Amino acid sequence: MEQNNSGISADFIISFFLPDGMIDWFEVVRIVEEPNTGNAQADILYNSVLNIYLDERDNREGEQLGLKPNGFTEATVIKDYPTRNRNVLLHVRRRRYLDADGRNIILNQYPLTADGTKVSVEFGLFFKDSDGHSSIDGSVISKILSY
Where would a tag sit more exposed on the chain, N or C end, judged by fewer CB atoms within 10 A? Predict the structure, then answer.
């Protein structure tokens, strides 16, 4: 965990830009900004796309320490809140382990996306009212999330 001269860690700062708890489970390994080349109606709102690449931390405990690390899964892409005129895409890779029989195991299940979507839980809740119903017309939501 990096710290600047004021003693503030990079994880502390990045935690304000990631879904709740994400920095506890994953570490940021790379951030890449690229021009927004999308042609959806909502793309006119965003100058660029911020790609944040995250790898699962090794949080094994107790008996799990006997599992042999076996790389990462393919990245899952999650759409998150736009930030400062940038679409935000989280590229999340989970750790894989081998058990004693040589089978691949993924240890933890995290609440990363809203049910049935590829958007972060908090971003999905943004479109709901206090009763849990959609507060915006579905076609408008589709246009917003089309990036």
Answer: N
Q: Return the half-sphere exposure (C-beta side, CA atoms, 13 A cut-off) of residue 50.
A: 15
Q: For residue 35, what pLDDT is reported?
A: 92
Could you tell me the two tokens for 127? Answer: 């479109």
The pair of structure tokens assigned to 38 is 């999308």
The pTM of the full predicted model, rounded to 2 decimals, is 0.71
Q: What does the block give as tokens for 123? A: 């971003």
Q: Return averaged pLDDT per consecutive 10 residues of the chain, 147 residues in all.
A: 70 84 89 88 82 92 86 88 86 89 76 55 50 50 48
φ/ψ of residue 57, rounded to 5: -70, 155
Taking the CA atoms of the chain, what radius of gyration do you get in angstroms?
A: 18
The C-alpha atoms of residue 114 and residue 134 are separated, in whole angstroms, by 13
Q: Which two tokens stand for residue 141?
A: 């939501």
DSSP β-ladder status, 26-35 and 86-93:
unpaired
14 Cβ partners below 8 Å, 6+ apart? 23, 28
